[in-house]
Amino acid sequence: xxxxxIYGFAENKGHLxxxxxxxxxxxxxxxxxxxxxxxxxxxNNIRMLVNAVSSNFENYEIKYAxxxxxxxxILSIVKEEGLGIDASSMNEATLAIKLGFKxxxxxxxxxxxxxxxxxxxxxxxxxxxxxxxxxxxxxxxNVPESVSFRIKIDYGKGEFKGTTTxxxxxxxxxxxxxxVDAYKMAKKFGARxxxxxxxxxxxxxxxxxxxxxxxxxxxxxxNISEHAGIEFDFVDLGGGLGVPYExxxxxxxxxxxxxxxxxxxxKILGDRPFPRLCIEPGRYVVADSSILIGKVTxxxxxxxxxxxxxxxxxxxxxxxxxxxxxxxVLANKLDNQIKGKYEVVGQICENxxxxxxxxxxxxxxxxxxxxxxxxxxxxxxMASNYxxxxxxxxxxxxxxxxxxxxxxxxxxxxxxxxxFIGSEKTxxxxxxxx
Length: 434
Ligand SMILES: *Cc1c(COP(=O)(O)O)cnc(C)c1O
Fold this sequence. Notes:
By secondary structure, this protein is of the alpha/beta class. The chain is built from 12 helices and 21 strands.
């Protein structure tokens, strides 16, 4: 049996290709580990999303969750496609503003933010999605015109325990029973536009999940309207739209998701006008747009077969952090037969540094190229320099060819913020003002 690919990828003469480009020479050209991104896939993902939403809702807004992948070149594509921004920190929001996103199209939705950060967001004209009543009172004299609260509905669905973002024990959001008073307070503090927000799932592949979420949040909204005398401008269902991480998995049925959401709106709101539907996809927009490629550095046959490469947990932390699975292939041996199962490990001094477990592969040799799929979301954005290992370079493939959009981190990046107070002449403080 040969190795399988994630849908949308192809093989040419045993090599993995992306939008018709052989990815193997890129490893030599740019070095590894390397993230290769398809601009067309990002645009297609966004267009499919816009199509599915707009065929069910007239009044809608799609905000890209920057934390999935903040590369400015990617944010520019997102902007060209007409999306807004979901920002979880001041840096993310500032980056979006510098790239030309308008403050009114940015939802600021941090978690346990400091007062200064909330004041900054308010003064910058962002809409704030408050995570607690306490956060609102901290800026009582400076609430933005548009205010929403994240509601902790009784139902959460993470793919893993570590990615469940609502329901009992989640650290996010206000309780349903706090909601009426929270909105009364926001009104008293001067907010003029109101939204309600929920983020109850991560990498959700079951369209029916959104029925429960939508019905729950709209029921809470109706109750607030009635008891706090508030008309709602928008309902934000957060992110969570899933993508296939396994080769045989079917993509999420987007049309069905938004039909279900529409049916739930009808059921709970009847003939009343619908508030604007907002969603904040991160993963859906970028995950399958990218692969992470690395070089096999050694193969060790012990009680398990260990395949070591220069892709480590500092580059791809999701497997170690959540037990997440990413599909992996030997990208230069797609025409070879699978010969065994390998623990695909990295170069970090941690035994949890495993990128894949029991991965079926042809016989690997030092210098082979491995490719990890679905590397566009929560990979580069979560990468670190741990163990002194580099954060990978990023290359964007578009109709006009390929372009580097992030250079690999170097030794000087690694030591950038250290101020060396020793007396030896090491050159470590070179170029820094002392
Ligand atoms: C992370 C996050 C998102 C994006 O989630 P995805 O699962 O990547 O779609 C959206 N909204 C909020 C508030 C988030 O924290």
